[in-house]
Amino acid sequence: MSDFFVWLNDQFLRMQWLSDLVTVIVRDGFGLDTNNQIGGSIHFFIYDVAKIFILLSVLIFSISYVQSYFPPERTRRILGQRQGFTANAIAALLGTITPFCSCSSIPLFIGFTSAGLPLAVTFSFLISSPLVDLASVILLASIFSWSIALAYVVIGLALAVLGGTLIGNLKMDNQVETFVFQSPLSDYDDDGIISRRERLAYARDQLIEIVHRIWIYILIGVGIGSAIHNWIPENIIAAWLGQDKWWSVLVATLAGIPMYADIFGTLPIAEALVAKNVGLGTALAFMMAVTALSLPAMIMLKRVVKIPLLLVFIGIVTTGIILIGFIFNSTAHWFS
Amino acid sequence: MNIKILGSGCRKCQALTHNVETAANDAGIDVCIEKLTDITDIARYGVMSTPGLVVNDKVVSTGKVLSVTQITEHLRSFSPEPDVNYSG
Question: Containing domain of residue A325, as a range?
Answer without folding.
Answer: 2-335
